[in-house]
Design a protein that fits this description.
Structural class of chain B: mainly alpha
Shape of chain A: globular
Mean pLDDT of chain A: 89
Number of domains of chain B: 1
Helix content of chain B: over 70%
Low-confidence stretches of chain B: none
Distance between the termini of chain B: 20 Å
Oligomer: heterodimer
Number of domains of chain A: 2
Strand order of the largest sheet of chain A: 3-23-22-19-18
Order of helices and strands of chain B: HHHHHHHHHHHHHHHH
Strand content of chain A: 15-25%
Distance between the termini of chain A: 26 Å
Number of helices of chain B: 16
Radius of gyration of chain B: 20 Å
Number of strands of chain B: 0
Helix content of chain A: 25-40%
Chain lengths: 484, 315
């Protein structure tokens, strides 16, 4: 016999598949039954098949500082994470609302700054923001869209309520793994797709291409769209390749591009120079143009900002969009939504203490062992302190950092993140998860991926899901199953 | 097509082709040694020269034992042309153009790389060797087959084919050069050994069967030279490769300088009496052919491969 769900421990957490009294949730009943019908051997085979598929397909990610090994197989768990379609539709609405407001906010910051004049958003925050780019002031990118691609991280707390944990507006990654996870699952458990009604995810790359093409400064039938990568040593290189290939566009490095005297961008081809219209850049702002930003950057293209500000090329996401994704700005997103859209946020923020406010800062320092403390501008889980799991010395170190630069720190209560059954040594054990859906914005249209990338902390009890810190992933299924 | 991508595809194909050629070479030598009496055998040493890695070999080895040589040819870390290194260079190149090559091709290169690494003990053992090398050769053919059948036959395809064929032509000349120089002389009674050695030369480039069809019954030096250098129909003959390179590069713009070099080299070899080349003269002549190939490569790089912004502005 296979998995006995009665023996499955939720340990007081909200489990996405198994509810009270070890009973599977209604929309997961079929999935739970499927796994309890599998033998141990079937499970091990499935696991081996998924490992093999990942190795053969070369699905990898890169970890910095591992010396010679630059790619690692992508850690993947074969038990999907499922979300009921009706719940998903409401999340989808909330995400669209959020990204629309954020785009209006960014555009406002680089133009009239009405939200500051109206006293909603403190001017100090902007002055001290490391992601505000003065080079972008007064520039109007096509359709006033700055954050064309947004990856927002969602988490569920102990009661099962969904929150937005953060928004990634610079160069969010992970979408290729979302797509590849599905193709691995189709190889491993084809029969499950017959038994359950799982919504497809494959539209993403064509939606992405359509959005990119719609940003072209030249009204062409087939504008030249390219993906700009820092190169093979970047941790997301696999994804850059994947997206370029799926969209049928060139994957370029900085050295493939040149800005000519006409302030247009060209790529160097075997038949000479060819004009580029849209650049989906996966290089951070500071490195895209040594003329405008970091002069030592060898990854970027000299003159790129010049070409962009003249409207000769579209950059996606727009430089400067990151101003809206630091963790202090995050705390203001509910106000931002109300201010620009006149609506209540559909998905709540996790309650956030801003160290900028002396009272809240005091609270954070006093309760540091209870809180998750985050620097405003780091991604990938770097610099994060998880209070209950930290040592006294680590807490002291973070407190010193907060005192030195309070604006750069926020804190949130430690969330009892939801769990999903995960195969560990042939048994099912709960592992904590989050969810990163991706939102595409163009002139008249905002689209959300069906589900997103579920990241899972593979280590028992761990709350850190970042792949750079030992996390893995699961396929995410939006299911159209009856609630009974 | 991006210049950088053209360059990468070209090298990717060269390395896959190289891995195939080395695997073939090792396999055939392995078979040949079983046919030769112990006293007369030249062992594995000639392969070090065919591959052109004597310096690297001698840095780390003091004898030419079978175990040392095999490990060096198949896995040798400091052998830039070992099968494993060739495939891992091919894989590294393929990784940077995964967006361009069909998925099946990447998967083919990737799984061949893992096969070579994971089954190395098989390759080093006497029993497993044949199967191991055969699997490598088959996998490379599968990769090229998948390329041929699934990639658009546009510029990308041309650079891939060009890389593969220039490598192939190079290997044909190397085998001819070293093998004929090391041939056990036939002034004794061991006549049959000369015959099987020439057969082995042909087999090293999979030419034996086609030779028989083309050249008749006996295997003799002059005929083998003619066949390997001049056959207009055998896909690994030097002349055939030149013609193939020309027909490929003609399809893209600005190839004049390369076409000119290929024409000159083809005219030269067609007018050469290759049948009568003796050992010293043969060696010198093959040197010339290899220089021709190197010039073709240089011209190709000058016209099509990636340049810096400064180089572009200077033009």
């Amino acid at each position: 016999m296979g998995i006995d769900w009665r023996a499955y421990q939720t340990n007081g957490f909200f489990d996405e598949l198994i509810g009270d009294n070890a009973k599977p949730r209604a929309h997961g009943a079929e999935l739970a039954k499927f796994f309890s019908d599998l033998s141990k051997e079937d499970l091990n085979q499935a696991r081996a098949a998924s490992d093999f598929a990942i190795k053969e397909m070369g699905i990898t990610f890169t970890v910095y500082g591992e010396g010679k090994t630059i790619d690692r197989a992508w850690p993947f768990d074969v038990v999907p994470r499922i979300i009921q379609k009706s719940e998903w539709q409401s999340i989808e609405y909330g995400l669209k609302q959020r990204v629309k407001a954020l785009n209006l906010f960014i555009d406002d910051l680089y133009h009239d700054q009405k939200i500051i004049k109206d006293g909603i958003f403190p001017k100090d925050l902007l002055t001290n923001s490391v992601n505000f780019r003065k080079q972008c002031v007064g520039i109007s990118p096509p359709s006033q869209t700055w954050a064309h691609i947004c990856g927002s991280d969602l988490v569920r707390d102990g009661q099962g309520k969904m929150y937005v944990l953060e928004d990634n507006l610079r160069v969010p990654s992970g979408v290729s793994y979302m797509l590849e996870n599905r193709s691995v699952m189709k190889r491993v458990f084809p029969e499950l797709f017959e038994r359950m009604s799982v919504l497809p995810v494959t539209d993403y790359t064509s939606d992405l291409f359509d959005m990119l093409a719609s940003m072209s400064p030249r009204p062409l039938d087939k504008p030249e769209v390219v993906v700009l990568t820092p190169g093979v040593f970047n941790s997301a290189y696999f994804e850059h390749c994947y997206l370029a290939r799926e969209m049928g566009c060139e994957l370029v490095e900085g050295r493939d591009l040149v800005v000519e005297k006409d302030d247009c961008v060209y790529m160097k081809t075997v038949s000479g120079l060819r004009r580029v219209d849209v650049i989906y850049r996966r290089i951070d702002d500071m490195f895209i143009d040594p003329e405008a930003f970091n002069p030592d950057s060898t990854l970027g293209v000299a003159g790129l900002m010049r070409a962009w500000s003249k409207g000769n090329v579209a950059l996606v996401n727009a430089p400067g969009a990151g101003v809206a994704d630091d963790k202090v700005v995050y705390a203001y997103v509910p106000e931002i939504i109300k201010y620009y859209l006149g609506e209540e946020p559909k998905i709540d923020n996790v309650p956030t203490y801003k160290c900028l406010d002396p009272k809240e800062c005091d609270y954070v320092i006093k309760n540091i062992d209870q809180l998750v403390v985050k620097p405003a501008n780091e991604s990938g889980g770097y610099g994060l302190l998880i209070g209950p799991k930290s040592t006294k010395a680590e807490q002291e170190k973070t407190i010193a950092q907060i005192k030195a630069d309070p604006r750069n720190w926020v804190a949130q209560p430690t969330l009892a993140l939801s769990t999903v059954p995960t195969l560990a040594e042939g048994e099912m054990e709960g592992r904590h998860v989050d969810l990163r859906p991706f939102v595409l914005s163009s002139a008249n249209d905002v689209k959300v991926t069906t589900g997103g990338l579920t990241r899972v902390a593979m280590v028992k009890g761990s709350l850190v899901v970042n792949s750079s810190q030992g996390g893995g992933s699961k396929d995410t299924w939006i299911v159209d199953e009856e609630d009974h | 097509m991006l210049s950088r991508v053209a360059e990468t595809l070209y090298w990717m194909a060269r390395y896959v082709e190289r891995a195939e050629n080395i695997a073939r070479l090792v396999n055939i030598n392995n078979m040949l040694l079983m046919d030769l009496p112990k006293g007369v055998s030249t062992g594995w040493e000639p392969l070090v020269d065919i591959i052109g890695v004597r310096k690297e070999y001698e840095e780390t080895h003091s004898d030419f034992s079978e175990a040392n040589c095999l490990r060096f040819f198949i896995l040798g870390e400091n052998n830039p042309s070992s099968i494993l290194n060739s495939i891992s260079y091919a894989r590294e190149n393929a990784r940077t153009v995964r967006d361009v090559i069909p998925r099946g091709v990447w998967e083919g290169i990737n799984s061949l790389y893992h096969y070579i690494k994971d089954n190395q003990n098989k390759g080093l053992s006497k029993r497993g060797r044949f199967e191991y090398l055969k699997k490598i050769i088959e996998s490379t053919l599968l990769i090229f087959g998948a390329l041929d059948a699934t990639i658009n036959h546009d510029q990308a395809y041309i650079f891939i084919r060009f890389g593969s064929i220039i490598e192939r032509a190079d290997m044909t000349t190397r085998i001819l050069d070293v093998r004929s120089a090391n041939l056990i002389t036939s002034d004794t009674t061991e006549r049959p050994f000369e015959n099987i050695q020439w057969i082995s030369v042909l087999r090293s480039i999979s030419a034996y069967q086609m030779y028989r069809q083309q050249m008749g019954l006996r295997v003799q030096r002059a005929d083998v030279l003619e066949f390997m250098l001049l056959s207009p129909v055998f896909p690994r003959s030097f002349l055939f490769c030149l013609q193939e390179l020309k027909s490929l590069i003609q399809q893209i713009d600005n190839a004049d300088s390369i076409i000119k070099l290929l024409d000159e080299s083809a005219d030269e070899i067609k007018n050469k009496d290759v049948r009568s080349l003796r050992n010293g003269a043969l060696h010198d002549y093959i040197d010339e052919l290899q220089i021709d190939l190197a010039q073709v490569h240089t011209a190709l790089a000058e016209v099509y491969f990636l340049k810096t912004a400064e180089e572009i502005n200077a033009e």
